[in-house]
Amino acid sequence: MNLENVDLLELQTSYMKNDPTTIAMCKALSPQFRKLANETKACLIYSRIDDLDEVALDELAWQMHVDFYTSDLNIDIKRKLIKESLLYHRKKGTPDIVERMATTVFGRSKLKEWFEYGGSPYYFKMEVEITNQGASEYQLKLLDNLINAYKNKRSWLEKIEIFLASIGTFFIAFASVFSEEVTVYPWSISSIDVFAKLNISTGVNSLVETSTVYPKI
């Protein structure tokens, strides 16, 4: 039953559908039930993050203790931070979560630990794309706060390398030309195979042997 389109009279028995009092009550209460059905949606919060306004998002971020959150962030970024806040808290202090947070707020980001680029122990650096966010003093300070909020306490940020990505359309065309040269030489004999029939005759002489046994009797 869909409460948004509920008709209480349709739920009555065939006898009650003809009762004037029942008809009047159903006509009066059906609109109230529909209104109530729409208002109950407001009780759904986490499943409606994509539909909440910024005021509700700011309150929800405070409730869920989103470590890196400012009211001037883009509303799409706010929604993503709130949706993944539980995951961020579980993995807080790991390189993966620092990298994911920087990617969420700024763009493609990569964290490299000291042994990956020949740095000093316990240091790391960040490579961050600023194509969509820019690299103003405020943005860099924001990035620094983000890193400090999610990195572990024993690791230290050595430097931030920023880069821009150019997006464009390239048209590439090519053509191939093929040719073939065939040289035909006069026919010549390269080998001769000879086949012949050979008949061989053999003969055997019969031998007669006489044996004499002595003494004769």
Automatic annotation (TrEMBL):
Q: What is the lineage of its organism?
A: Bacteria, Bacillati, Bacillota, Clostridia, Eubacteriales
Organism, by scientific name, is Clostridium cylindrosporum DSM 605
Cross-referenced Pfam families: Tail_P2_I (PF09684)
Listed name of the protein: Phage tail protein, P2 protein I family
Q: Which domain of life is it from?
A: Bacteria
